[in-house]
Design brief:
Keywords: Antiport, Ion transport, Membrane, Potassium, Potassium transport, Sodium, Sodium transport, Transmembrane, Transmembrane helix, Transport. This protein is mostly helical and 526 residues long. 74% of the residues lie in helices and 0% in strands. The chain contains 21 helices and no strands. The chain has helices spanning 2-11, 21-51, 59-76, 80-86, 91-108, 112-117, 119-146, 155-165, 171-180, 184-214, 221-252, 261-281, 286-301, 307-338, 346-373, 383-391, 397-409, 414-435, 437-444, 462-465, 476-507. The two termini are 44 Å apart. The relative contact order is 0.15.
């Protein structure tokens, strides 16, 4: 009987080079069937957990566990070779097919009011905070290697690891935020930071990778900064340009009539991938480009669509991003159960977890301090919200994909060590932090307090424009910092006025159509 089972396994094995095309097709069908079954099980289990309010096992955690269980069973039954062949795809599959819809949906699902009313704080956390977290993580990992606490990596590779592991993906926390009902501004800060944080992290990673490959010295530091700005600003410009182009097309092409709605939807779906491929073709970051394309298309292009097309594209990208993110978490579970990892460097994993916690604290509390310098007392970010921000720094799809790419970018097993550590960090943060989010929210007393705090609800309104930092005798340096932050704060208000008076009338055929969506904050990738 065992011989017959082994014969059947070999019969459908996609790894069999001598198999006929019929057998190869049968093997591919079995692999796709297995993937569909795991996706169906994950969605059904997630629905049951959400319906019964079982927050100790979020949907992302359930998907990870399904992958771990299937991978473990494959190891026990000696079929891991077949399953690994069915799931054996390169990181290009992530960057070309799985990550783009997830990142686009992140930008597309941003609600304008909460995002732009907290724009200054979100940019501070996402840009400055991610840079702080990357440098602190990379520096601590390098010092840990010098102190023989963990596996030693070169300094630039430590900075690459710091950049990729700084990409947060708090989809689990955000879903529980919405289920339990928390402050809309806290939600906007966590969500907005995670959206822009991806763009910053991938730009930092690519810059550090370029530094390593070209062996830049301290004398060439200026060119490193220029390269980073070229990647980030160039990708941002490409994404914004494609988004504005789509807005003008849908405004003046007259596609919002009944017999052209299919064409309208097809064009809308194609523009994000056009933005992604345009940036990649010019050597920029497609992920950064498609993120800002999503933000611009939601704010300007979306209202130029017909009502039926608006409903279709919103549901379509929500569906695709949910499938992609669920598949990634399942694959991560399978990968950690079946692939060969560098588990000999347990110290690297352990201390990396400690170091990213320290770096996350340096990110959140220092940026919150800067933001609070320019806010009046009744709108400062309270300490319990800062702690919730710190706790929400889960790692997910972006960190995993960049770690997968690092295997090819780094030699001598360094990339494999980083990939193993990143996979372990993603699994631990999603399972432990994601599962304890409900308890954390109750302990910090931020559940259901959407009306208790008004610290940033009107950050860019006229009431906040009149705030002037009080005179401080502690020193002129702190006063200068406050004035600089106040100037940045006023610039965000100027952008809001520019958007309202010029951009919206120019790019939108109807104003205020998307204001209806401001009260409902969608969940990223769920």
């Amino acid at each position: 009987m065992a011989m017959e089972d082994e014969a059947q396994i070999m019969l459908i094995s996609p790894a069999d080079p001598k198999g006929s095309p019929v057998k190869d097709q049968q093997a591919a069908g079995v692999g796709i069937l297995l993937q569909i079954m795991m996706l169906v099980l994950s969605f059904v289990l997630g629905h049951v957990l959400r319906r019964h309010r079982l927050y100790f096992l979020p949907e992302a955690s359930a998907s990870l566990l399904i992958g771990l269980i299937v991978g473990g069973l494959a190891n026990i039954s000696n079929t891991e070779t077949n399953i690994r062949a069915w799931f054996n795809f390169h990181e290009e599959f992530f960057f070309l097919f799985l990550l783009p819809p997830i990142i686009f949906q992140s930008g597309f699902s941003l609600s304008p009011k909460p995002f732009f009313s907290n724009f200054g704080a979100i940019v501070t956390f996402a840009i400055l905070g991610t840079f702080i977290a990357s440098v602190v993580t990379g520096g601590l990992v390098y010092l840990g290697g010098l102190a023989f606490l963990m596996y030693r990596l070169p300094f630039v590779e430590c900075l690459m690891f710091g950049a990729l592991i700084s990409a947060t993906d708090p989809v689990t926390v955000l879903s529980i935020f919405q289920e339990l009902g928390t402050d809309v501004n806290l939600y906007a800060l966590v969500f907005g930071e995670s959206v822009l944080n991806d763009a910053m992290a991938i730009s930092l990673y690519r810059t550090m990778s370029l530094v390593r490959s070209h062996a830049y010295s301290g004398k060439n530091f200026f060119f490193v900064i220029v390269r980073f700005l070229e990647t980030f600003v160039g990708s941002l410009s490409a994404g914004v340009g494609v988004g504005f182009t789509s807005a003008l097309l849908f405004k003046y092409a007259g596609l919002d009539i009944d017999n052209l709605q299919n064409l309208e939807c097809c064009l809308f779906v194609l523009f994000p991938y056009f933005s992604y491929m345009l940036a990649e073709g010019f050597g920029l970051s497609g992920i950064v480009s498609i993120l800002f394309t999503g933000m611009v298309m939601k704010h300007y292009t979306y209202s130029n669509l017909s009502q039926s097309s608006q409903q279709f594209v919103a549901e379509f990208f929500h569906l695709i991003s949910s499938l992609a993110e669920t598949f990634i978490f399942i694959y991560m579970g399978l990968d950690i159960a079946m692939e060969q990892h560098s588990w000999s460097h347990v110290g690297f994993i352990f201390f990396s977890i400690l170091f990213i916690g320290v770096a996350r604290a340096a990110n959140v509390f220092s940026c919150a301090y800067l933001v609070n310098l320019v806010r009046p007392a009744h709108r400062k970010i309270p300490s319990n919200h800062q702690k919730a921000l710190w706790y929400s720094g889960l790692r997910g799809a972006m960190a995993f994909a960049l770690a997968l790419q690092s295997i090819h970018d780094l030699p001598d097993g360094h990339g494999q060590t980083i990939f193993t550590a990143t996979t372990a960090i993603v699994v631990l943060t999603v399972l432990l932090i994601g599962g304890s989010t409900g308890t954390m929210l109750e302990a910090l007393q931020v559940v259901g307090d959407s009306d208790d705090h008004e610290y940033s609800l009107t950050e860019t309104t006229d009431a906040s424009n009149g705030y002037i930092a009080p005179y401080n005798d502690e020193g002129s340096s702190r006063s200068r910092i406050k004035m600089k932050l106040k100037e940045f704060h006023e610039s965000t208000a100027s952008f809001t006025a520019l958007n309202r008076n010029y951009l919206t009338p120019f790019f939108k055929s109807r104003s205020g159509d998307d204001e209806e969506d401001d009260n409902s904050i969608p969940i990223r990738g769920s």
